[in-house]
Design brief:
- The protein has about 250 residues and is an alpha/beta fold.
- It has one domain: 3-Layer(aba) Sandwich (Undecaprenyl pyrophosphate synthetase), CATH 3.40.1180.
- Strands 3-4-2-1-5-6 form a 6-stranded parallel β-sheet, sandwiched between helices.
């Protein structure tokens, strides 16, 4: 329900003030879904929908900073999305390059590219790496931009890395099988060294992960929001965090 403007501002401030410090997730994953449907709903082009979605990202990062989130992972493009028609994919990649470059240019956030960069066009991969390199020394909110990302591909890449390292060291298959442990995968994921996401948000009303952070989200709390991503508001974000804080997290126990 959208409240009238004066009440909306009051409610938003009270909601933000009510969030307990111990109920703030360190890492939030966000599936930015609904750009195309939003564009159709306003009678605009798909590219305009993707651009509107890109413009919303800085707002989300600011809201995350305000409440003390440490890591945000943004799913901007899946490996499946790479199979879209060139008429849609090429403008989308250009928008992603622009948006990630703009995030890096603020000098405010540390940007890290997570995904199978080898599956992307060379110019897109270079743009992501350039943004990552330009923000390496920044202390503050860590922003993972998941482009060409698929959870199954990430796990397969981690296993390949493990096998390759041990093959180069001369380990036998029997030794690999004997020594293999879950941590060998965790240590080779795109997000290695980061806390797993405690909260995963998906917009647009869809209630599925679609392969997002498959390994890392084993104990995540999920929040599904009806709003299309370009319409996602600070109040929607705060409600998601409030819902997270209200849940009893047993972590599989």
């Amino acid at each position: 329900m959208r409240l009238p403007h004066p009440l909306y501002g009051l409610y938003e401030r009270r909601l933000a003030a009510s969030l307990p410090a111990e109920g703030i997730p360190r890492h939030v994953g966000v599936i930015l879904d609904g750009n195309r449907r939003w564009a159709r709903s306003v009678g605009s082009s798909t590219a305009h929908g993707h651009r509107a979605g890109g413009d919303k990202i800085a707002d989300l990062l600011g809201w995350s900073e305000d409440i003390g989130v440490e890591v945000v992972t943004l799913w901007l493009l899946s490996t499946d999305n790479l199979e879209r028609s060139p008429d849609e994919l090429e403008p989308l990649l250009a928008i992603i390059e622009d948006v990630v470059g703009e995030l890096a240019a603020t000098g405010r956030w540390r940007v890290q590219a997570v995904g199978a960069l080898d599956m992307l066009p060379d110019h897109t991969a270079k743009a992501l790496v350039a943004a990552q390199d330009a923000t390496t020394g920044i202390v503050g909110l860590h922003v993972n931009v998941a482009v060409g990302y698929g959870g199954r591909r990430e796990i397969a890449d981690a296993v390949r890395a493990f096998l390759r390292e041990h093959a180069e060291a001369g380990s036998s298959l029997d030794e690999l099988a004997e020594d293999f442990d879950m941590e060998h995968i965790a240590d080779r994921l795109y997000t290695k060294g980061q806390p797993d996401p405690e909260l995963v948000i998906r917009t647009s009303g869809e209630q599925r992960l679609g392969g997002f952070l498959l390994w890392q989200s084993a104990h995540s709390e999920f929040y599904f929001c009806e709003a299309y991503w370009p319409d996602f508001r600070r109040i929607d974000f705060l409600r998601a965090v409030r819902a997270y804080g209200a849940r009893e997290r047993r972590l599989g126990r």
